Amino acid sequence: MVDRKAGTKGKKAMVMQAILCVLCILIGAFYPTMVDWSKTAVERWAQSNGKSVEWQEARAYPFSPVSVVLIDDAFQLSIALCFVARKTGLRSLWSDKSLVLKMLPLGAIYAIGELLTLRSVQKGSGPVYVVIANMKLVVAALMSRAFFGRSVSMPWLHWFELVLISLAAAAYTLLEAGSLGTSWRWEGAWMALAKSSLVAFSSVFCEHTYKSNPFHLTLTLQAFWGLVTAVLLIAVSFSGLAFPSIAMELHDVDGGLSIFGGGSKHPLCASAAHAECERWLSRLRTTPEAGQYCNCLSARGWDTYTCFTVLADLSNAVSSALVFRQLSAVAKYVCRALSAVPMYVFYCAVGRIAFRFQTFAVVLYLCFQVSMYTKQRHQIAEVAAVKEEASWVKEYEAAAAHGSDKRS
């Protein structure tokens, strides 16, 4: 009877883990897809190769990415403060001063990571971002080895698996670049890799902060410092010290300061400034040097899809926190890696990208390799934990035996 109950409980736990894994996959695919779909404007420019000039265009954000990060972090902080006020009271946020300071770099990393995600999808695409995000395993392993040395050494087979993961991510990126041709921008891939590096850094050096402190307090402080970071980035940009493009993006079509009316630093395609640039280009007697000229945007400012992006990011943060608390570490990474498959299929189904069996095979292989690596690393950690526990028991028994001998 006991065995039957245990078996039933085990089956229920397996079903629940499967449901949570599906949710995890959907969460991993939903947010970057919504971000990609928010590119409702069209950027147009004259591309010169030094011999001829061709007009090209690509989908683009009508909004400023930093404005989305600012509003999203403000929403997250508001919800988190309401939750903390009901659970433990707002004073509990500041009761542990060391935790407040520890969460400062994590909040900054979170805000910068959000901005890098938006920039990555802006310059590239959702699938490219999701695929390159798996590089965090490689970066985390390299960081651990570099900073902690032999204490975190791995078998050579695991390093070989990380090389294969890197090659698969690189292969997918190159295939995507080849299929998009001149509209491909490498900035998207580099920013996705930068985001992966930030995630890897926080997991290597700061994961214990999340695990050893109350969950609701760490998330609230993360949102607080994330909002502070976004405000500081805007302030530094307007002061002229750094990041001038942020200040340029936070102006509307009339040149006034605006969070919701801002967008790309380029003028509207229907503006007099762009018309003048086109006339200048047409009057040139020789072809200009290789580069982009007369960039313009079809629309500027927030729209309905921008609001959906904020809601998607908010739901991603909340649902990820809830789901990941119930999933094991190995399941979390495997399920997130698998999100690349339904995302690629969806993009092909709606016509955003053309289905290519070679590219799809690379996506499948990457998911398989990430799953195998994560599972093996988890098994090694479990074996090490069992050995450590066994050695502790032996030492305890030896000490107890020695104590009884002395008493006799």
Description:
- This protein is mostly helical.
- The protein is 73% helix and 6% strand.
- The protein has 16 helices and 3 strands.
- The protein has helices at residues 2-37, 65-87, 92-95, 97-123, 126-133, 136-148, 156-180, 186-205, 207-211, 215-239, 244-249, 272-283, 304-326, 329-338, 340-349, 357-407; strands at residues 41-48, 53-60, 291-297.
- It has a 3-stranded antiparallel β-sheet with strand order 2-1-3, covered by helices on one side.
- A hairpin with a 4-residue loop joins β1 (41-48) and β2 (53-60).
- The longest helix has 51 residues, at 357-407.
- The chain is globular.
- The two termini are 46 Å apart.
Could you tell me the mean pLDDT? 79
Helix residue percentage:
over 70%
- Content-based structural category: mainly alpha
What is the total tally of β strands? 3
Question: Beta-strand percentage?
Answer: 5-15%
State the end-to-end distance.
46 Å
| Tertiary shape | globular
How many separate helices?
A: 16
Radius of gyration: 25 Å
Short key terms for the protein model shown above:
single chain; about 400 residues; mainly alpha; three-stranded antiparallel sheet; 16 helices; 3 strands; about 75% helix; about 5% strand; globular
Task: Give the topology.
Elements: H1 2-37, E1 41-48, E2 53-60, H2 65-87, H3 92-95, H4 97-123, H5 126-133, H6 136-148, H7 156-180, H8 186-205, H9 207-211, H10 215-239, H11 244-249, H12 272-283, E3 291-297, H13 304-326, H14 329-338, H15 340-349, H16 357-407
Helix pairs in contact: 1-5, 1-13, 1-14, 2-4, 2-10, 2-13, 4-8, 4-10, 5-8, 5-15, 6-8, 7-16, 14-16, 15-16
